[in-house]
What does this fold into?
Amino acid sequence: TIASHQADERRDPASITKLMTAYVVFGALRQKSIVPSQMVSVSERAWRAEGSRMFIEPRKSVSVDELLHGMIVQSGNDASIALAELVAGSEPAFVERMNQEAKRLGMASTQFVNATGLADPQHWSTAGDIATLAQAVIRDYPEYYPLYSLREYRYNKITQPNRNRLLWTDPYVDGMKTGHTDAAGYCLVASAAREFPNLAQTGTGGGKRRLLSVLLNTTSANARADESQRLLNWGFTAFETVRLFEAGQAIVSPPVWKGTSSEAHLGTTGALFVTVPKGDAAKLQTRVE
It folds into this structure.
């Protein structure tokens, strides 16, 4: 974390809740308990969902893939309920899974009571927990992450745009989720990845550097987009990521007594990166204990 303000303060997450709804659905897809082509009968409860909708209808079956697009791109509450009912039998049973996953991910200050993000006094999270969740979505289900970069989706002859305006204004932004209710204000989780050169003398090559911003309870759709853009720009320009060691590189080779080898080659299983204020890379020192 390179910046935070009131990150542990309990807030209404609004439709950012759907990041967890998607996380649980992605898990069901990976376990093959549901498949993208599966057709879903729409319940009366899903059809009558309040708030933003993708406009599914009880008399018209819809595929899991279409529901995913409707939930992620159009922020459809009807799609969220339909997926919850498919995966767990009912929305309350699905919410139990959401809370189990939140606990497993270490989201200690989060409690869900629905799969949509509709305002409820018992439904809350924090900016810090939401950052943890957003990272988990990207890390654990990269095959589904491209859905968050889609600018619009058309269903039932109705085209709706993604409400994340940064998808149009910043070529590096490729997700993730907006939210808005009267109680929550205007919220945005934004994710951007930019190429960065290798800045350390140890190690070779470059790669992409990803930053996440979580902004809750702003006053307008413009404000959440503008302030998120400022945070991302600051993070990319004021900090640099340094590759300290490559995967499988021997960092130290201590001697071994009475072993089959005279020394052990010790390092890390993955490449080791650190993020530091710009200009501090040359000051880094490593010590092995």
Summary: Residues 221-238 form the longest helix (18 residues). The longest strand covers residues 185-196.
